[in-house]
Design goal:
This protein has 192 residues and is α+β, with helices and mostly antiparallel strands. Helices cover 22% and strands 39% of the residues. The chain is built from three helices and eight strands; from the N terminus they run E-E-H-E-E-H-H-E-E-E-E.
Length: 192
């Protein structure tokens, strides 16, 4: 089955099922590959540990077909990687490996073309919305501490403070079909 819409989520966590400290998210329209092929792409990330050894991980997928007057299909992929299993692998190396997989998946998707520009306001809205959804904090309680624009990559990076003392961050870019939050993270107490 090929999915009309697909969402790929990669979480870096200590244990399966725990709320992640870092998540990468990719939403795609018209994924032009079978679900099994997308799973193979994601499995390559389970071997990014030191010396190519497998990293403890959990990979799941869910696919569905819908026909309520108009037919559609969807797929969702969730890969959880153990932060401890990555050893001394740098955050930059992890991010680069995930970007490579996302780039290959984006290359196999079709969607509406939004152009090459995204405003900081659009990016900020996407960042706040994703952090609120991922970590269960009201978006209006996030105060921007830092905002960076990367004109070459066409991305924005934001750091927010929250009223309870936690810090959140997000990277937002234009992903072929829409402004999307590509990575979120948090620092501080996770018991909230």
């Amino acid at each position: 089955m090929e999915a009309l819409t697909a969402k790929v989520i990669i979480n870096l966590t200590e244990y399966p099922g725990m709320q992640p400290d870092i998540s990468w998210v990719l939403a795609l329209d018209c994924l032009d590959i079978p679900v099994e092929e997308a799973l193979r792409e994601l499995r390559t990330l389970s071997r990014i540990g030191p010396e190519g050894r497998p990293v403890p991980n959990s990979l799941s997928s869910r696919a569905g077909e819908h026909d309520w007057g108009g037919s559609s299909s969807s797929a969702e992929f969730l890969l959880e990687l153990s932060a401890g299993g990555l050893g001394a692998l740098s955050a930059t190396a992890i991010d680069a490996a995930i970007r490579d997989v996302f780039k290959r998946l984006r290359g196999r998707a079709r969607g509406d073309y939004w152009g090459d520009l995204m405003t900081e306001e659009q990016a900020l809205g996407a960042a706040r919305s994703r952090i609120a959804t991922q970590y269960g904090v009201p978006a209006d309680e996030l105060t921007v501490q830092e905002a960076e624009a990367d004109a070459v990559e066409g991305t924005y990076a934001f750091t927010f403070s929250h009223t309870d003392g936690r810090t959140f961050g997000a990277a937002v870019g234009l992903l072929k079909d829409a402004p999307s939050c590509m990575r979120v993270w948090r620092k501080g107490p996770s018991g909230h």
